[in-house]
Specification:
The chain has six helices and no strands. The protein is mainly α and 172 residues long. It has one domain. Helix 1 packs antiparallel against helix 3, helix 2 crosses helix 5 and helix 3 crosses helix 5. The radius of gyration is 30 Å and the shape is rod-shaped. The termini are far apart.
Length: 172
């Protein structure tokens, strides 16, 4: 009987010990999940900041190009207004628009990829504003091949935003 009571006590002790081990394992698991979540949030914040930095740097390079070259700035302004351009300037303007659009698309894609949806949407909005305000830019945009077939969805988002704004103004 004494052995049976001791065996029962040992079994109860083992059950309690197993329960404590399970609780400790769960506590460690919860701690690890929280630490991993915090690390993921930090990494995501870093990725978002890097996306903004990269986009800002590309915009700055484009602006420096125009600021540093009066002829290119005049071409950019004339082209945006829709002034008549000779064949060479028309080609140069088209290439500037293509480069500027690539910068905008890259900014959109980078920010959408890391979850900066507000910035991605703002990029689409900014381009739509420019396309509506600048007839020459709009014409050049329509000639770009990626404005027709764009796997990123950027061109389609821009066109949709332009149509929405034109319809809201009664011009669509």
């Amino acid at each position: 009987m004494v052995l049976g009571g001791m065996r029962d006590s040992l079994l109860k002790f083992a059950e309690v010990l197993a329960s404590v081990a399970v609780i400790l394992s769960l506590a460690v698991l919860i701690y690890e999940v929280r630490e991993n979540s915090s690390a993921l949030e930090r990494n995501n914040s870093i990725a978002k900041a890097a996306a903004l930095d990269e986009g800002s740097e590309q915009y700055s390079e484009f602006r420096r190009l125009l600021i540093g070259n009066r002829d290119l700035t005049e071409l950019w302004l004339k082209g945006n207004r829709g002034d008549e351009l000779d064949e060479v300037d028309s080609d140069r303007f088209g290439r500037l628009v293509a480069e500027w659009t690539i910068i905008m698309r890259n900014h959109y894609v980078r920010n959408a990829t890391v979850g900066n949806y507000e910035i991605a949407t703002l990029t689409v909005s900014r381009l739509a504003d420019n396309l509506l305000a600048r007839p020459g830019l709009r014409s050049a945009w329509e000639l770009l091949p990626h404005s027709k077939e764009d796997p990123t969805g950027f061109a389609a988002a821009v066109e949709l935003e332009v149509r929405k704004r034109m319809n809201s103004r009664g011009g669509g």
